[in-house]
Amino acid sequence: MDPEVSFMLLCDPLQALGEHQIHVEISDRFNRQSFPEIEQHIEAVWSDRVAKEPWLFNGAKFRLHSAVLSVMEKGPVAEQAAQNLTRSQRGEGDQLESADKSSKDEQSCVLTLQLGLTCYKDYLGTNWSREAGRLQSHGQNECADPQAFLAQPLGVGAVMATADGDVVLLRRSQKVAEAAGLLDIPGGHPEPKVRYTENSCSELISSAQTRVNVPVSSLSKPVFMGIALNHTSAGRPSAEFYVRCTLTTEDVRDFYRHGGPEAHESTEILFLSRAKMFQLNERAPLWSEMCPSAKGAVLLYQRVMPDC
């Protein structure tokens, strides 16, 4: 597997979670831990970056503290699944299957995303900083959690399939701070200013819709495939979804060309057939053009949605 990515949580094949199975819990208990030295470092990093890239601006983000899987069936298999998830969310990189393989009942589990608040400035000064490794060691020693002092902003991505079966990819702008010029799937970071309901997958992936500029009414309900970790930014998490669009590939291209509220984030739209999506791997020429979050989404799609 590509060393840039791993899975924090991975659903079973054909067992992606529906919107009603994803809950969001927001509390300041899930915020980043702090100490004076790192706050000074964050301020210094931010001042330096803004001086070099004056178009950057700070913004509030959700911080993923953990993902808690509640399995309804009782028994040793369900208990083991919960234990595995606890280890995984602390950054040990375990793969976790979403439910008992012997059960096909989609009601068997509920995933709760425990979210605190962070910001883009904190992300650049922790996850994206040269001090990230030291912060992880400090977190492990002080909190038994290597991610405790990191911003860990929750990214979201959507593998979006058109009515023709093509998957949408976007070329990131050269002016974004991370993975400039690389290919990505539609997505971003959900904004805390949005009012989130108990079951809020649609709100979480709204950034994917705005990146492509397609009407919300053209998108199916999202299904959750898993959480990928980006190891080029100290294990930053991204929740990956699959969504179908009723528009044809050409219609999606036209909507994108008309621009939208976040058109400046990308410079080009591309489409890959389903067959080519399943051929993508580290040996494929296109793989080197993809940012880590897109790689994680592709790998999840290949494993979780083989017949979609």
UniProtKB/TrEMBL annotation:
Ranges for region Disordered: 82-102
CDD domains: NUDIX_Hydrolase
UniProt KW keywords: Hydrolase, Magnesium, Metal-binding
InterPro entries: NUDIX_hydrolase-like_dom_sf, NUDT22/NUDT9-like
SUPFAM superfamilies: Nudix
Cofactor: Mg(2+)
Keyword Phosphoprotein: no
Gene Ontology molecular function terms on file: GDP-mannose hydrolase activity; metal ion binding
Biased composition (Basic and acidic residues): 89-102
Protein's UniProt name: Nudix (nucleoside diphosphate linked moiety X)-type motif 22
Phylogenetic lineage: Eukaryota, Metazoa, Chordata, Craniata, Vertebrata
